[in-house]
Each structure stands twice: as C-alpha cells, then as structure tokens.
Amino acid sequence: MKINIQSLSLFTLATICVCLSPINARANDNLENTSISNTANLVSSKPSPTIAFRGRNITLTGQNLTTADVVQVAKHGAKVTINNEALSRVQKSHEILLLAAESGHKIYGLTAGVGLNKDQAFVNATGGLDEEVIRVSKEFNRNLIYAHSAGAGPEMPEEVVRAIMVTRLNAILFGSTGAQLRVAELYRDFLNNDITPVIPFY
Fold first, then answer.
1. CA distance linking residue 128 with residue 100, whole number of Å
2. Which of 108, 146, 187, 202 is catalytic?
C-alpha cells in the first residue's frame, strides 16, 4: 500500500515524511490521535510487489541494526518490534527535551527555528508548554512542512523508502532525538502494515 503524501493530514505527514526531523513532530500533540485505522481510510489498498512474504521478526534496539536486518524489512516484509529498553530511552529523551524547553533553552524545531534560523527563538516556553506555546509551535511546524513539501522525478522504489523508514526508526530508538514515543510507534506500525509514503527522487 502506498500513500500519496499530499492526501494525509498534516500531523500524520509529520510522522512519516522521512526527510523531516523527528524533533519537529514533537510539537504536534495531535499525534496521539493518529492511528493506522484512520490513516488507512485515506489510501486505496493494493497488493505490494515489495512485500512478497512476511519474513522473520526484527527487534530494534537503536543500537544493533544490521544491513541484513534492513534488507529483511525493506525487501521481504519482516515485521518490526521495539525493545522495551529502547522505548524507555525515547520517552526519557522526550521528557528531557520538554524540561529543557521549560527551562528557557532554545530547542531546535520546537521553540527555535531550523537551519540558519536555529538560534532564533520564535516562542518562549519558560515555565511550561501552555496553550499559546503549543499553538505557535504547531503553526511553525505546519509552515515548515509546507516549505518542504516539494519534489520531482520518478518515485523511489518502495523497498528503498522502507529501508529509509526502518533506519530512521532505529535512529530515534537510540534515544537522543527528543521525539515523542508516538512517532516511533507510528514508524513501526506503518512498516508492519505496509503503509509507505510516495517519495520522489528529487
């Protein structure tokens, strides 16, 4: 099953667009309401040529993903599970991110800009992430997605996109991105349910 990324809701897109920093997705608390069932309603189901069979189960820890594991997931449809210790690291790193923001630190993509604007704060979260801080951060991330939602050329092969997704998920599980736990869970669920974004080469 492939997804035309233009048909997705904004916050679902933030979790599956593999070019987007997972920290940026953190500010979107709507992720908690994102599910496989409501995403699947947006796409048409068809047999995937990539997923010929469901191979062995791959347990991701954020530390020991091998090339062979990537091939199993990308080409042969191996299902992905996440080690409990890795889930704990993701949750703790997200909590540290929030504490840093509430302490007045500039957080990339959450309270400060990205790229050349990484040192420019656009909202002050000192004291807590209140409704106004969340609103401004959501607006920034929405505009960031719009600014990056362009591409050209042929579609990447589905197995290449799946390889990108599983390696991105493994990087999140290392526990240093600050992404919220739901982002990791959605990467896992999309891989296991053969939901793949359509990504152009350029």
1. 10
2. 108
